[in-house]
Design goal:
Radius of gyration of chain A: 29 Å
Largest interface: A-B, 57 and 57 residues
Number of strands of chain A: 28
Shape of chain A: globular
Strand content of chain B: 5-15%
Number of helices of chain A: 25
CATH topology of the largest domain in chain B: Ubiquitin-like (UB roll)
Helix content of chain A: 25-40%
Helix content of chain B: 25-40%
Largest sheet of chain B: 5 strands, mixed
Oligomer: heterodimer
Strand order of the largest sheet of chain A: 3-5-1-12-9-10-11
Number of domains of chain A: 4
Structural class of chain A: alpha+beta
Number of strands of chain B: 5
CATH superfamily of the largest domain in chain B: Beta-grasp domain
CATH topology of the largest domain in chain A: Aldehyde Oxidoreductase, domain 4
CATH superfamily of the largest domain in chain A: Aldehyde oxidase/xanthine dehydrogenase, molybdopterin binding domain
CATH class of the largest domain in chain A: Alpha Beta
CATH class of the largest domain in chain B: Alpha Beta
Distance between the termini of chain B: 26 Å
CATH architecture of the largest domain in chain A: 2-Layer Sandwich
Strand order of the largest sheet of chain B: 2-1-5-3-4
Number of helices of chain B: 6
C-alpha cells in the first residue's frame, strides 16, 4: 500500500493531510442545525429595533394564537428563573456592570436585544408568529460614540449612573519592571523625539461562516445541549451557574462547529433561552440564527481609541511608551469582554527593549452590541499601535522602518528576556525572521521601484509596510489568570485510552472548530506511542466524553492541550512498563520503550505495545498490584506563555487619483517554534492574514446615529472574497519554545495580529511624501482619496479636468465607441 | 401546498411543499440533505451552492417549486461508488478547507468554474469564486485546489454534469 510506503519517519513535522476532511468534503457533517429530534420545537426571537428604550408593554396574544405556536415567553415570564448572563473577568474590584438578562425585562440597551421568544412547531411558524408580537417601547437617548460615552452625559444604563465599567493600569515604575514613563516623555520633549498619535481600532464582527445554533433536549435524566460553540465546558459551567441547574445534570456537546475566531467564545442569551424554552415545553427545541441576527447580536470585536505617546532619543532609541485606551464594551459584559483590552497590556512593548511603559485602559459601555474576543483579542490592537508608531519614528528619524526596529528589538543572544511589561520571552530570533522575509520579498528591489515611481510622479504609488510582531499565546498559567482576577484557570486535560484491539482513543479538553486537532493530536500520539496515525481516534467537544477541559481560544490548544497529551502518553508508557517487564520476565528498570516496542535493555527481546495492551486487557496473568489498564490522563497547567513572532512585509499600490489600493505582494516569515504539521500551519497563517488584511482594508461594523447596525448583512459587512485577495508567500524560522515539550508556540492568531499594521503601514508609506501619516481603518478608496485631497497634493489635483477626456461637459455621458482609445491613453500615462 | 417532482443526487422525489419554501430548506429539512448548508440570508455567501441541471445555483435563492422537473446535484452526490470527485480530492490534497462550512458550496462552485473554463488563470478562478465566502482559509489554498483539479484535466469539471446526467 502506498500509504505505508509514504509513511513519514516521524509524524510530527509531516505535512499530513487532514483526517477531518473526509466528512467535510462529502457533506457527511454534523452541524448543530442538522440535528432533528422527535417532537422538536423551533424558536424565533423577537428583537428590539431600538438601541435604547424602556419596554412599556408586550402583547403576545396574536402570536400565541398563530398556527403551530406552543408558547411565547417574555422577560416578565422568566425574570425569576433566567438569572443574569455571566462575566468571568471582573478586571478590578470595583468593576461596574449592568445585569444582563437573556430576555430583556423592562429595558433594552442595544438594537438586537431579545425581548420575546416564540416556540412553535416549525421554524417558519415561529418566525411568522414572532412578527405578531407587539412590543411598546419608550425610546431613550442612546450613547453610541466612545468618546461621548466617556463624558457620561448620556448613559447606556441609567441605573448604573455611569458609562465607566472599569479603569485598569499597568505601570512599569510601579511594577518594578521599568522606569517612570512620564519622566521619559518629559526628557524626550526637551532633547529627543516625541511621537503622539491617536489611532482608531474600528469595531469588527467575527463573522464565522456557520451561524450559531443551539439544540436543547430536556428529556432523559440529563439536559443535553448541542451548541455551535468554541467552549462547551464553559457553556456547561455557566448554564449551571446562571440557571441554578446542577452541573452534573447538564451535558453540552459541540458537534462540528463551523469556525469561531473568538465569536463562539461565549455563553449566549440564546443558549439560556433554549434551555428555558425546552424546560417550559418539555420538548427538545432548536434555535438557529439568521446571518442578520448573527451580525446584530453575536458579540463584536476590537472597538478602541488608542492615544499613544512614544518617547525616543534623537537617534531613534525608544525611551518610553504611554498608552491610553478607551475600550467599547458595548451594552453588556460577556464572558471575557472586560479582559480583552487587558490582554493587550503586555504586548504594546512588542519585541522591543523599552525602558519605561505605562498602559491605561478605560472600559466603557455604549448602546451597541456587546464586544468580546475576536481573533487576537487585545493583541492585534497592541501590535497595530506599536508597529504603526515604529514606522512614524523611522520617518521622524529619517531611516528605514526595518532599521529603527533593529535598533530597538531584543537581540537573539539576549533571550530569555524579561520585558518592561513583565513577560519573559523564552526564545526568538527577530534577526533571522527579518532577514528571510527581506530576501523573499525583494525588499531592496521594491524600495528602488518605490523611489522610481515617486521620482516620475506615477499616479500609482508603491508603499512598503513592515510589521515585526510578537504575541503571547498558550492561555494561560492559572497563577497569572488569578492575579488578573480571571475567574477560571488556564490548564488543559487529555486522556489516552488504549483499546484492546490496538486502536487508541485520545480525549482532549480542547474544542476544535476547524483547526485540525484530530490530525495533529494523532500525529503526536503516533510518534509518542509508536502506533499508526490511522489508528488514533481523537474525541472532543462532549462534556460527557471529554469531561475536563477549558476549550479552544487564544492559540492555546497545542501549547497547553498538546502538552497535556504528551504527559498522558508518557504516563501510558510508564504504566505499561511493569506489564511489559512481567511479559518479558525482566526487571522494570531494564525495560525501555521506543518505536512502539518495549525492549529489555541490551537484548533483542521485546513486546509490541499492542501485545502489552492485550495482556493488560485480558489480565489473566497480572502480578499483584498491577491495574488491568494502561489508560492514563494528565492535566497540565502551563508554566508560562509562549511568544510566537514574525516579520511581515507588504507592498501596496495606491492609485492617487481614485484612492483605490491594491495588494501587490505579501511575505511573512513566522517563528512559531516547532511545527507539528506545516500544511495546517500554512493554512492558519493564510486565514489569519486575510482576517487582518480585512480589518485594514474592508471591514467595519457601522452604526447610524440611532444606534442601528447598518452593516447588518453580508451585503454591507464586506468580508473579503477570493477576488479581493492574493496568494501569499509564507515561510518559517524555528526557535523552539522552552516552556513545553513540543517546543510549540501557537499559530492560530499570528497572521491576524501581524498583517493589519503591515498593510496600513504600506498604504501610509505610499502617501507619506504627501504629508500623510494616518488613514483610519478600513482604508477604503474614499478615505484614501479624501486623505490625498486634504493633503493637497499634485496627484490629487490631476483627477479633475482632463483626467477623463472622454467625458465632455454637455455631451451624453457614455462610453466612447472605440474602447481602445481610452486604453491606449491609460497606457501612455503609465 | 404545491406538488413538485425533483431528482436529487440521482433519486427522484415527489413532495408537497409550501410555495415559499426555499430549495435549500427543501433539501435540508424535507430530504435530509444536510450536506448543503445555509450561511446567510442575502445570497452573498454561497454556502448553499448546488447544481441545478448541471449549473451552479445558490439554493437559498431558488424556490423549491422552481426545481420542479429539474435535477439537483448536491455535495452528497459528487462522490461515486466511494470514489471522491477530483475537486473533492483536490480540496483535501491542498488543505483547502478548515472548518468546512463553506466547503460544500465552494466545491460545487469550483466545479462550475471549471465547467465554464477548464483551464482558468488564477485571476479567473478568483473571480469565479467571488460569490462564495470563506472565513478560514484566506482562499489561498482553495485557489490552489482548483488549479490542481484543472491541471488534472477534463474530469474535474465534467463529472458533476455526468452525475446529473446519470440520473436520467
Amino acid at each position: 500500500m502506498t500509504a505505508v510506503e509514504d509513511r513519514p519517519k516521524t509524524e510530527i513535522g509531516a505535512a499530513r493531510k487532514r483526517k477531518e476532511d473526509q466528512r467535510l468534503i462529502t457533506g457527511r457533517t454534523k452541524w448543530t442545525d442538522n440535528i432533528q429530534l422527535p417532537g422538536m420545537r423551533h424558536l424565533a426571537m423577537v428583537r428590539s429595533p431600538f438601541a435604547h428604550a424602556t419596554i412599556t408593554g408586550i402583547d403576545t396574544s396574536a402570536a400565541k394564537s398563530s398556527p403551530g405556536v406552543l408558547a411565547v415567553l417574555t422577560g416578565e415570564d422568566v425574570k425569576d428563573i433566567q438569572g443574569g448572563m455571566a462575566n468571568a473577568w471582573p478586571i478590578t474590584e470595583d468593576q461596574k456592570a449592568p445585569v444582563h438578562p437573556a430576555i430583556a425585562v423592562d429595558h433594552v440597551a442595544f438594537a438586537g436585544e431579545i425581548v420575546a421568544v416564540v416556540v412553535a412547531r416549525s421554524a417558519a411558524a415561529a418566525r411568522d408568529a414572532a412578527e405578531l408580537v407587539d412590543v411598546d417601547y419608550d425610546e431613550l437617548p442612546p450613547v453610541l460614540d466612545l468618546k461621548e460615552a466617556a463624558k457620561d452625559a448620556v448613559l447606556a444604563h441609567p441605573s448604573l449612573g455611569t458609562n465607566k465599567s472599569a479603569f485598569w493600569q499597568f505601570d512599569s515604575a510601579g511594577a518594578g519592571t521599568g522606569g517612570p514613563v512620564d519622566e521619559a516623555i518629559e526628557k524626550a520633549r526637551a532633547d529627543g523625539i516625541v511621537i503622539e498619535r491617536e489611532y482608531r481600532q474600528q469595531r469588527l464582527i467575527p463573522a464565522f461562516m456557520e451561524p450559531r445554533s443551539v439544540v436543547c433536549d430536556p428529556t432523559g435524566e440529563q439536559l443535553t445541549i448541542w451548541t455551535a460553540t468554541q467552549v462547551p465546558h464553559f457553556v456547561r459551567i455557566f448554564t449551571a451557574l446562571v440557571l441554578g441547574i446542577p452541573e452534573s445534570k447538564i451535558r453540552v456537546i459541540a458537534p462540528d462547529v463551523g469556525g469561531g475566531f473568538g465569536g463562539k467564545l461565549q455563553h449566549t442569551p440564546e443558549e439560556v433561552i433554549a434551555v428555558l424554552a425546552a424546560r417550559h415545553t418539555g420538548k427538545p427545541v432548536k434555535y438557529t440564527e439568521t446571518r442578520s441576527e448573527s451580525l446584530l447580536s453575536g458579540h463584536h470585536g476590537r472597538d478602541q481609541w488608542q492615544k499613544l505617546t512614544l518617547a525616543a532619543t534623537k537617534d531613534g532609541t525608544v525611551t518610553g511608551l504611554k498608552v491610553d485606551l478607551l475600550a467599547d464594551m458595548g451594552a453588556y459584559l460577556g464572558l471575557v469582554t472586560s479582559g480583552i483590552p487587558v490582554l493587550g497590556a503586555f504586548m504594546f512593548n512588542a519585541i522591543y527593549k523599552f525602558p519605561a511603559y505605562q498602559f491605561n485602559c478605560t472600559n466603557l459601555f455604549t448602546n451597541k452590541t456587546w464586544t468580546d474576543a475576536y481573533r487576537g483579542a487585545g493583541r492585534p490592537e497592541a501590535t497595530y499601535a506599536i508597529e504603526r508608531l515604529m514606522d512614524e519614528l523611522a520617518a521622524e528619524v529619517g531611516v528605514d522602518p526595518l532599521e529603527i526596529r533593529e535598533k530597538n528589538w531584543i537581540k537573539h543572544e539576549e533571550f530569555p528576556f524579561t520585558t518592561v511589561a513583565g513577560m519573559t520571552y523564552d526564545s526568538g530570533n527577530y534577526e533571522a525572521a527579518t532577514a528571510r522575509a527581506r530576501e523573499l520579498f525583494d525588499y531592496d528591489g521594491l524600495r528602488r521601484e518605490q523611489q522610481e515611481r515617486r521620482d516620475r510622479k506615477d499616479p500609482v504609488q508603491l508603499g512598503l509596510g513592515v510589521s515585526t510582531f510578537t504575541e503571547m499565546c498558550g492561555l494561560a498559567p492559572s497563577r497569572v489568570l488569578g492575579a488578573l482576577r480571571y475567574a477560571a484557570g488556564g490548564w488543559e486535560h487529555a486522556t489516552v485510552r488504549m483499546l484492546p484491539t490496538g486502536k487508541v482513543e485520545v480525549v482532549t479538553g480542547t474544542s476544535p472548530h476547524g483547526q485540525g486537532h484530530e490530525t495533529v493530536w494523532s500525529q503526536i500520539i503516533a510518534d509518542k506511542l509508536g502506533v499508526p496515525f490511522e489508528d488514533v481516534e481523537v474525541l472532543h467537544g462532549d462534556t460527557q466524553i471529554a469531561n475536563r477541559g477549558l476549550d479552544t481560544y487564544g492559540s492555546r490548544s497545542l501549547v497547553v492541550g498538546g502538552q497535556a497529551l504528551v504527559m498522558a502518553a508518557d504516563r501510558v508508557i510508564e504504566k505499561a512498563k511493569p506489564h511489559a517487564a512481567h511479559l518479558l520476565e525482566a526487571s522494570v528498570d531494564d525495560i525501555e520503550f521506543s518505536g512502539g516496542q518495549f525492549k529489555v535493555k541490551g537484548t533483542d527481546k521485546g513486546k509490541a505495545m499492542a501485545e502489552v495492551v492485550w495482556a493488560a486487557f485480558s489480565s489473566h496473568d497480572l502480578p499483584e498490584g498491577l491495574e488491568p489498564t494502561l489508560d492514563a490522563d494528565a492535566t497540565y497547567d502551563p508554566v508560562d506563555f509562549s511568544f510566537p513572532h514574525g516579520t511581515h512585509l507588504c507592498a501596496m499600490e495606491v492609485d492617487t487619483e481614485t484612492g483605490q489600493v491594491s495588494m501587490r505582494k505579501y511575505v511573512c516569515v513566522d517563528d512559531i517554534g516547532n511545527i507539528m504539521n506545516p500544511l495546517i500551519v500554512e493554512g492558519q497563517v493564510h486565514g489569519g492574514l486575510v482576517q487582518g488584511i480585512a480589518q485594514a482594508l474592508w471591514e467595519e461594523a457601522v452604526y447610524d446615529d440611532q444606534g442601528t447596525l447598518v452593516s447588518g448583512s453580508f451585503v454591507d459587512y464586506t468580508l473579503p472574497t477570493a477576488a479581493d485577495t492574493i496568494s501569499f508567500v509564507t515561510d518559517n524560522t524555528v526557535s523552539p519554545s522552552t516552556t513545553n515539550d513540543l517546543g510549540a508556540k501557537g499559530v492560530g492568531e499570528a497572521g491576524c495580529i501581524a498583517s493589519t499594521p503591515a498593510v496600513v503601514n504600506a498604504v501610509v508609506d505610499a502617501l507619506r511624501p504627501m504629508g500623510i501619516n494616518d488613514i483610519q481603518m478600513p482604508c477604503t478608496p474614499e478615505r484614501v482619496w479624501k486623505a490625498i485631497r486634504s493633503a493637497g497634493s499634485d496627484q490629487a489635483d490631476a483627477t479633475t479636468g482632463d483626467a477623463q477626456p472622454h467625458f465632455d461637459a454637455g455631451a451624453p455621458n457614455q462610453a466612447p465607441p472605440d474602447p481602445s482609445s481610452s486604453a491606449s491613453a491609460e497606457g501612455a500615462d503609465q | 401546498m404545491t406538488r413538485i417532482n425533483v431528482t436529487v443526487d440521482g433519486v427522484g422525489y415527489e413532495d408537497e411543499v409550501e410555495p415559499r419554501t426555499l430549495l435549500v430548506h427543501y433539501l435540508r429539512e424535507t430530504l435530509g440533505k444536510t450536506g448543503t448548508v445555509v450561511g446567510c440570508d442575502t445570497s452573498n455567501c454561497g454556502a448553499c451552492t448546488v447544481h441545478l441541471d448541471g449549473r451552479s445555483v445558490k439554493s437559498c435563492n431558488v424556490l423549491a417549486v422552481q426545481a420542479d422537473g429539474h435535477e439537483v446535484t448536491t455535495i452528497e452526490g459528487l462522490a461515486q461508488d466511494g470514489e471522491l470527485h477530483p475537486m473533492q480530492r483536490a480540496f483535501h490534497d491542498c488543505h483547502a478547507l478548515q472548518c468546512g462550512y463553506c466547503t460544500p458550496g465552494m466545491i460545487m462552485q469550483a466545479i462550475d468554474v471549471l465547467n465554464d473554463n477548464p483551464h482558468p488563470s488564477e485571476e479567473q478562478i478568483r473571480v469565479g469564486l467571488e460569490g462564495n465566502l470563506c472565513r478560514c482559509t484566506g482562499y489561498h489554498n482553495i485557489v490552489k485546489a482548483v488549479q490542481q483539479a484543472a491541471d488534472e484535466g477534463s474530469t474535474a469539471g465534467a463529472s458533476a454534469g455526468a452525475t446529473a446526467g446519470g440520473a436520467q
